[in-house]
Structures are given as C-alpha cells and as structure tokens.
Amino acid sequence: MTIKWNQVARHFFMIIFSIIMAYPVLWWIGASLKSNSELSSPSLFPSVPQWSNFVDGWNSVPGHSFTDFYLNTFGLEFAVLIVTLISSTLVAFGFGRLDFPLKNFWFSLLMVTLMLPGQVLIIPQYAMFHQLGWVNTYLPFIVPHLLASGAGGTFFVFLLIQFVRGIPKELDESAKMDGCSWFGIYLRIVMPLTKPAIVTVMIFCFLWNWDDFLGHLLYINSVDKYTVGLALRMINDSTTGQQWGQLLAMSLVSILPATLVFMFLQKYFVEGIATTGIKG
Amino acid sequence: MNRSTAVAVKAAAGKKKRRSILSRWDAPIAGYLFILPWLLGFFGLTAYPMFLSLYYSFTDYTLMESINWVGLHNYERIFTADAKFLQSVKITFLYVLASVPLKLAAALFVALLLNKAMRGISAYRTAIYFPSLIGGSIAVSLLWRNIFGVDGIFNEVLSKFGIQGMGWITNPSTALWTLILLTVWQFGSSMVIFLAGLKQIPNDLYEASGVDGANRFVQFYKITLPMLSPTLYFNLIMGVINAFQMFTSAYVITNGGPMNSTYVYAMYLYERAFSRYQLGYSSALAWIMLIMIVIVAAIIAGTSKYWVFYETETGGRKRK
Hints:
The complex is a heterodimer. Chain A is mainly α. Chain A has helices at 7-31, 52-58, 66-97, 103-115, 119-131, 139-146, 153-165, 170-177, 182-193, 195-210, 213-219, 228-237, 244-254, 256-264, 266-278. Chain A contains 15 helices and no strands. The radius of gyration of chain A is 23 Å and the shape is globular. Chain A starts with 6 loop residues before the first helix and ends with a helix. Chain B is mostly helical. The longest helix of chain B has 32 residues, at 83-114. At the A-B interface, helix 1, helix 3, helix 4, helix 5 and helix 9 of A face helix 1, helix 2, helix 4, helix 5 and helix 6 of B.
C-alpha cells in the first residue's frame, strides 16, 4: 500500500524531508571548519576553513593525542570482534544444527535474555569485575564477548542461529558419512555458508562497541586507556573556554569509521536489520 | 588430543555402542561443547549477577565496607522518602511515552511514502537511515548540544522565519524535548524494518479490496496495519525497553538538568551506583526499573491479541 500523492509532490516532500534530516550533519561538517566566532552564523560553510580545528583538536588532550585514543579503541574493537566471531558462531552452530538434551530449554533462556533490560546487570557485573581487579582494563569488554554476552552478544547469537537453521542439512549428511566431526562440519561447511550473517554480526558488533559509552565510562579510568568517546567527553568537560570548532571537528572524525563501514557494506545493513526485525 | 578429534572419537564410540541412553540426540556431548561459551556466559554474566543484584538490593553494600542485610529498608526508602526517584520515574515515562510513538509513527509514515519504486529511493533511504547509525554516539550528543544552545544554529534558522528562539537545552520545559527530538531523528532503522515488512504484503490483497470498492484509508486500516502488526509489535516492545534505559544523551547533553528536567532513571541509577557507590540502594532501584519494564511490556503484550494479527492463526488468508 502506498500513499497515493502524485509523483511530483512525493519527490518534493522527500527532498525537503531528506534535507531536514541531513541538515544537522551538513551543518556539522561546516561547523567543524569554523572559527569560534563564526559558529553562530547561519551560513553552512565558513568563509575561511579552519583546518587548524582538526589539528588543534587532535592534540587538545594534554599529554596525549587522538592517535593514542584511536589506537586504543581500534585495538579494543579488534579483540572484541575476534572473540565474538569465535564464540557466537560456535554457539549458533550448536543451537542451530545440533540436537542435545534440554536444548529447547536453553534456547528459551537465550530468548529471554535477548529481551532482558541490561540495566539490572550493570551493578553486579561491576562489583564482580571490581573484585576480580578488572576495572581499568579492557577485560570487562573482552571476556563477556568471549562468552557470547556483552554489548549485543545474545542478539548476534540469535541472528546467526536463524541463519544457520536455513542451511540445508543434507550438506552435513555427506560430510558425516565421510567421517567428518561436528567441528569439521562447523568449520568447513556451515561457517563458509554463513558468511553474510557473520559480516552483519561483525558490523553491528563494531558499531555497538564503538558507542558503548556507559561501558567505557564505567570501566576505563586512566586517560592513557581512554577510548575516543571518553576523550571527547574529556574535551567537552574542560572548562577552558569552549572550543566548539575543535570539539565538533574531533566528534566528526569519530563518526567516520561508522560512516565508512556503512558506505562500503550497505547491503549487509539493510538485510541484517530487515530479517531480524521481521523475525521478531 | 584436540577437541575435534575427541569429538570424533566420541561420536565413533557412540556409534559402536548399542542403544546408549544418549543415542536419542545426535550430538549430546558435542552440542554442549559448542554452546559452552554461552552457558558460561549465561550463568556467570546473567543469571548469577541477577541473583547477586537481588541480594544486594536487600543490603547496604557500598563496595568498600562490609555488607549488611537491611531487609526491605532500601525499597521503603525509595517509595516513601526519595524525591529524586519519583522525579526520574516521571521524566523517564514522559520520555518513553513521547519518543517511542513519535519515532514509530515517523518510521511508518515515511516507509509508506517510500514504498513505491521511485528514482533516488536509495538516496532518500540513506539520508534517513544515516542518523540512526551515528545517533547513539557521544559525538552526536555533543553536536546536538551545540545546535540547540542559545547561540546555536537552530535559533538562527528560527530567526530567519521571524521566530524568537531560546535556550532549548537550558530551559526546563524544553530540555527533554531536545532529547526526544534526538531519538525521533533516528527513526531510520525502524523505517527500514517497516519498508521490508511492507514489501511482504501481497499486492493482490490491495487489488482485490480495490475491486470491492475500498478506498485508501480503508485499505490502510484493514490491510496494511494488520499485515504489519507483528513488526509493529516487535518494534514497539523493543523500542520501549530501550527507551527506558536511555542514558548517553541525557548524560552528555544536559547532564540530567536543568533542574532535573532530563533526569532519566538511568542517570539516577548511575549517580547512586557509581558516584556514591551505594550499590545496595541502586540495586533496589535497578530491580524496580526491571519490574516497571516487565509490567509495561506485559500490558503491551496483553493488548496484543486485539490488534496483532499473525497470518498463521485463524486458518490464514483464504486463497481464492
């Protein structure tokens, strides 16, 4: 069903609407190049682009530069992505392919966890990690993902399970007759066929961990371990004359990774969201 | 021997044994090995913490000192002597009740508009989806703070239309609306889901009803909405659950102010737990929020039988 306006009206509305939606970002790009005084002027772009905003902003945290923060964040992301890849595919294969006692019971628990509001777990998890001495390390991020938990972990397992279920079982049969172990079937047959879903999982794992502001806020205390998000907050909180241009410049750079991922992997986004959205 | 060999040996041994108890399942041991990470995670990071948090809520735990049982004292105090609790509940409910319906309505409306092959559709879709990609980040919250400040671009644009702007973020009656607007701006991801759902509605339904004389509005209410209702339902529940836990934008843009007008529950929880380290008290707060969410979700689920239509029930659509 569609709303039947005529073609022109529809396009007109969509163009205006898209510009309004995109306007904050367009303005953002221009503002990051403006000097402080020019910031309140309504022009989208400055008269003289202040590229220095980027340079100064990059070094605006005393004693460190954003290079450190990006290295931290990418390093953390890399570790998290690897362990998520391994654990979530293993678990998804188990649930999606194998039959074992109480499987349905565990699967129902998985589903319940999917909808569980995470807030109730933050405090006890913090207490546990504190007692283990893991505060101010990256372990509170890596270990949960190793156990198919963490930011979005259960969702990734669920998404992969749905996908694995759709892979024909006949492929397993022939492999089993050749004496292939379950692990071999997992590694050589099912996983290669699950690649599209795996890419989707990797994308969202990357994005959700990049934006796990509360997690970073709680567990990362020393500046040399700061992620990009925490560094931005630090600049924002500093009261030495708000250098909006620099702050906006650094913020803009921080959304670049997400933007690039989106630009080059667009089809995985739409398919990933659409399939899981509908299967709700 | 490594795990795959062990699994293979076990499997082979199982085949040789006659009718072992486990032969009912095709991979009783391998299955558990594969899901072991999740089992450990579930017990260690979900089930155990939940019980721990419930336990804490009946204590005065502060992470440093020894832990003492105080029974229902925390809960009593929350419900009788805690103004900040009441304020944060009120603000959170306001936020949820405003942002979730608006966001879903926008998503549905634009999805209906775009549900027609038109040139440039992927450009429109990108422009609309992009905010939801970046919107949850601290970066966008900082941008928002700048845009809606007294000297911000929003006021500049308003002045072009002759409207006097104000400090949207510093004014207690408008601050929450800037946060709501930020959430609604990110309706793109919901829109994509609705678009996919719309594409699944078979065209012959509309054609047949058109032949029977149904106009556009009737078609919307009798065909589109029912066929989309499972998707709508899922988005509604997940949207509500997430909205109740909103934290980053309130923390970064307004820090709960001005005058606690954006003091959402997650902020209160954060303050009690991680500024004041009152883990016992804040565990009680966390459980109260959990129960509130469960109640709201249960209410939505309860109403669902009146408006959510699953094709497989009632014998499905009758095919001509």
